[in-house]
Amino acid sequence: MKLFIFGYGYSARAIAQELAPDCDWIAATTRSEEKAAAMTAAGLRAFPFDGESPSTALKDALAEATHLLISIAPGAEGDPVLNCLREDLKRLPALCWIGYLSTVGVYGNHDGAWVDEDTECRPVSRRSVQRVAAEKDWQALASELNMPLGIYRLAGIYGPGRNQMIKLDAGTCRAINKPGQVFNRIHVADIGLAVAKAARLSHNGILNVVDDEPAAPQEVIYYCADLMGLPRPEEQSFEQADMSPMARSFYGENKRCSNIRLHELIGGILHYPTYREAFAHMWQTDSWRKKD
């Protein structure tokens, strides 16, 4: 396997680590020179990519890839990879699988009802509307190429270095209560588990990469506070809470996401089926503060 990743972020890194034993090489893009140096030191082939001007070296590496993973968000102008490399992607001789990291935000609001991969997308926020458009664009290309395409709709991502414990420790965590509101989550290690398995199998189709138990956000915060021996933050009502427009928009999408097909793919249980196992492990191993 020769894996090329557009956008070496938090989730893509976990996927790359899972797939490393299967790969002859892994190449990935970044906007940061500092991050590129760290990626090179870790044994990756790092390429700068600003979404507009791919280098000749990037195109040469891409031409060798057997597996392609897209982990860059679309913008108002569409998907940046397709915008500047669509024709190049049509001429990749060794490519046999494409993976696209999307979001469960594409489903929009379902007032707490269960949704699965066949549920109609009803995006609410602008970023979710852009995701739906990007999914369709990648599906069109995959259909043209007769290429397996896996679309992985991720729930709220957390893990070491990115979780509520950090805010609780800093005293900046708030418990927002919007009655009936629930979210799914997914630990970054389970993103790595799921998408790596999908790549090995050349999975084709849409998959919710979410945990087993959607829960209210304040429940997770209270569980973490109790684990850490800290006082629970005072509950604030959604209506009265001072929130950014982006933060408030997350509460406009209320649903429970099924992961039946995810379990079928991985053939077993997640590393962290719910937030309880995940936070208990991070607390016991003192790994909640760090990403490495």
TrEMBL record:
Keywords noted in UniProt: NAD
Tree of life domain: Bacteria
This protein's record includes keyword NAD: yes
Protein's name in the database: Nucleoside-diphosphate-sugar epimerase
Species for this entry: Cohaesibacter marisflavi
Lineage, top ranks: Bacteria, Pseudomonadati, Pseudomonadota, Alphaproteobacteria, Hyphomicrobiales
